[in-house]
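Hi U.,

Before I forget, here's the chain from the pilot set. I'm dumping it here mostly so it's searchable later in email.
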Amino acid sequence: MHEFTDDAGQRLAARFEADRPHLAAVAHRLLGSAAEADDALQEAWLRARQADTTAVTNLTGWLTTVVTWVCLNLLRARRNRRETFLDVPDAGYEPRTGAAADAADPAREALLADEVGVALLVVLDTLSPAERVAFVLHDMFAVPFDDIAPLIEKTPAATRQLASRARRRVQGRAPAPTADAGRRRRAVEAFLAATRGGDFTALVALLDPDVVLHADALVVPTPEPVTVRGAEPVARGAMAAMARARFTGPALLDGRIGLVMAPSGRARLLLDFAFGADGQIVRIDVVAEPERLRATEIAVADTGR
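Structure:
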């Protein structure tokens, strides 16, 4: 780290290190990737150390602003790249390159995704940069709209509207009322836990003996869609997907409880479940086709709803 000779510089360095967990949390929620958040913090530090902070009284707030500016620029560049390649089938997924790829730690990425919520990161990825900044800073870090507005070049009232619009996207449509909604959610969560833990017996117990799994051609990938029948074959297939399960979390899929797999916060795979009268899983549809991914409303599965 740069060695400062003046008191303001030393104060800035100390504050940055003390605030690093907070700044990293802001960057991760804005960008959806731990590795990209690390890069953003490095860039923010390079910018901050070149500024005159002698008159800054709230260094934490000022540093949060610098990190947000860096993340906002990255979000805008990311959005521009996607718009340029709209005709590319897999344009929704951009493998990291360079320093971010070298720094990527799958276990850390998965841990942070669990901490924030995979579904929330997926929904955030669908927002415009301004919507994402307004929602994350206000709803997740309690930053006043008056402070957010200058960052996205909006009025406080317009910033409030952006956050409200983002909040509606996060919540999605209200799930259809069912008498066994709680049981279905617990079954989906148990399916994920058993897959992550490699618990074959627990998986089989969740599945109807005649369960059918249908996966589109891009899931594996294969030339044709794949259909698997029977509890044990389906459970063995789930065991083979343990690595994917690290980046998977519960979500509402068009109002129904399901699972979304999203490395770096970008939806790559959906698991849509159907249940029998006894609560066992009778069908699993696994979706990877980009058009079907885009056509599905993904929202946060709120236990309070």
